[in-house]
Amino acid sequence: MTMCAADKSCRLRSRQGMTLLEVLLAMFILAMVVSMVSLTLSGSINVVEATRTQGELYHRAQVAMLRISEDLASAVLVDSVEFVGTDKEEKGREADSLLFSSTAHVVFDPDHDHPGMAVIAYSVVEDEENEGEFLLLRADDLLTETAKTDEKKQVTQTRGGYLLSDRLRSISFTYMDDKGDEQDSWDSEVDPDDPTAIRKLPVSVICTLEFWVDQAAQSSIEFTTRILLPAGLINGKKA
Questions:
Q1: What is the overall mean pLDDT for the chain?
Q2: Is the pTM above the cut of 0.85?
């Protein structure tokens, strides 16, 4: 009887569930594991998102820089258009503008447009939908044969413009003259009463685009390129 009672007692004890302390301990361990997994997944998602964002910015910069480089590399001086680079600031950030004539006119509608000399302008405006961001606009107006040689009708602006890039924090242009000096602005216009004055293009232009990565964290990324202007280089050697 004693052994039977003991065996029954053992069987009863073996059938008993977990104590409250054991349940709480198991829940704590499970919570720790879930928390660690969540943190790991969250970190991985953030890395993937940051990589995707930077990839998009690199693509934006590549497209904008390629267009700007082709426009400036084809820049020329005609009587009716000056090369004017203006050093500007908006909300304490660089927002430079640029206007010049170039042979890099982009033909969007072959049926109603054709290649030729154009007045190209770059301007920066605030993004109304995204506070703190700038938009880079490019205008491209074909020059008529009359306007090319009409000294009395100087072209100082263009019509409209299309979006070249968004998410910009700042944009700046720096101009190098034939002596190797860098300038924040440029104006090819000269005194008409000075017979020795020569209208000049810059030899090269440094373009810097700064994109927002995260405004809240004040994080941004810069892309810089230097564009050689063959016409400016030839003009500088002649001078």
A1: 83
A2: no
